């Protein structure tokens, strides 16, 4: 069974705690990590890669000191090791241009505004991780009961 990681990035601890709480039901089959900066997230991703683990999904805030979330997700998107990693931008302060950049350069799969709907975020994360498993060609059978069954059925056709 492959080790799948989901990384949440936000410089505000209370927001990060809320995201982690909302995603907690996924922790039975995903390793969920939190980072308070883009640089911390990139280091963690390097560590996971060096250990042969997968970063299935990264959820990032946009407005952070140092690198913004869009800059982080763009860097991840351009790193061949993480070409299939799914990306969500979760923010309340992105401009129209930031959003365009996130779509065109960072190739995000989803955009959520704060405050978000916990169930919608959790289900979107489940869908994206399911897509990641199939995109990587991983054996999905160990995760079967946790995956988005619509994606599984569509991919098996």
TrEMBL record:
Alphabetized InterPro entries for the sequence: Bact_response_regulator (IPR050595), CheY-like_superfamily (IPR011006), Sig_transdc_resp-reg_receiver (IPR001789)
Record-annotated Response regulatory domain positions: 5-129
Classification via Pfam families: Response_reg
4-aspartylphosphate: modified positions: 61
SUPFAM superfamilies: CheY-like
UniProt entry keywords in alphabetical sequence: Phosphoprotein
PANTHER family: RESPONSE REGULATORY DOMAIN-CONTAINING PROTEIN, STRESS RESPONSE REGULATOR PROTEIN 1
Name of protein: Response regulator
Organism: Vibrio algarum
């Amino acid at each position: 069974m492959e080790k799948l990681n989901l990384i949440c990035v936000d410089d505000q601890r209370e927001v990060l705690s809320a995201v982690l709480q909302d995603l907690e039901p996924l922790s039975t089959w995903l390793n969920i990590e939190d980072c308070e900066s883009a640089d911390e997230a990139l280091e963690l991703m390097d560590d996971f890669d060096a250990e042969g683990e997968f970063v299935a999904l990264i959820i990032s805030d946009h407005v952070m000191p140092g690198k913004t979330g869009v800059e982080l997700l763009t860097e991840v998107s351009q790193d061949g090791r993480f070409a299939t990693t799914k990306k969500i931008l979760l923010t309340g302060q992105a401009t129209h241009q930031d959003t365009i950049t996130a779509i065109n350069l960072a190739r995000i799969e989803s955009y959520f505004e704060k405050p978000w709907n916990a169930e919608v975020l959790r289900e979107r994360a489940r869908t994206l991780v399911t897509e990641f498993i199939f995109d990587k060609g991983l054996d999905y059978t160990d995760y079967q009961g946790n995956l988005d069954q619509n994606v599984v059925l569509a991919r098996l056709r």
